Amino acid sequence: MRVGHQVAVFSCAADAHRQIEIQRPALIIIDDSASAVALSRQLKHDVEWGAIPIVLSTAQLLNDGGAALRRESGADVVIMKPWRREELEAVMNALLS
Questions:
Q1: Which residue intervals of 1-97 are DSSP H helices?
Q2: Distance CA 3, CA 65 (A)
Q3: Residue 17 region by backbone torsions, left for phi larger than 0, else alpha for psi between -120 and 50, else beta
Q4: Neighbours of 72 (CB within 10 A)
Q5: What is the pLDDT of residues 5-35, one digit of tens each?
Q6: pTM, entire model
Q7: What is the DSSP string of 49-66?
Q8: Strand pairing partners for 28?
Q9: Within its chain, how far is the Cα of 1 from the centroid?
Q10: What is the C-alpha to C-alpha distance for residues 89 and 1, in angstroms, rounded to an integer?
Q11: If pLDDT is split at 50, 70 and 90, which confidence band does 1 have?
Q12: What sign has the CA pseudo-torsion 84, 87, 92, 95?
């Protein structure tokens, strides 16, 4: 990851949502839990937060390359667990550039 990024970790989508409003992140990485997918969908449909890039990390087998999960969640990118650090860095750099 690029130098200068700060990371905040939340155990539930409700806590994350509250902190997103306070911290205004440049990028959000979520898991594929139902509450996180719902949060992603909610943020992407919000005028104020919809432009924040969202990466969804999943252990699900993605026969369609993640297209259905992207549509369902609104996430910009879906990556398969376990991902390599370099893969996540590349995704983050592409979304933040």
A1: 13-23, 34-44, 67-73, 85-96
A2: 30
A3: alpha
A4: 15
A5: 778 888 888 888 888 888 889 999 998 888 8
A6: 0.87
A7: TTTS-EEEEE-S--TTTT
A8: 54
A9: 15
A10: 5
A11: very low
A12: negative
Tokens linked to 90: 């590349």
Scan for tokens 């549509």, then name that residue: 71
Pull the structure tokens for residue 30. Answer: 């979520």
The CA-atom distances, in angstroms, between 91 and each of 18, 43, 49, 68, 74 are 25, 19, 19, 19, 16
Which domains does the chain possess? 13-96 (3.40.50.2300)
Q: Report the distance separating Cα 26 and Cα 93, nearest Å.
A: 11
56, 75 Cβ separation under 8 angstroms: yes
Q: What's the Cα-to-Cα distance from 48 to each of 10, 24, 38, rounded to whole Å?
A: 21, 10, 17
Q: What is the DSSP letter of 54?
A: E
Q: Would you say residue 69 has pLDDT above 70?
A: yes
pLDDT tens column, 27-62: 999 988 888 899 999 999 998 889 999 999 988 877
- Beta-bridged to residue 58, according to DSSP, are 80
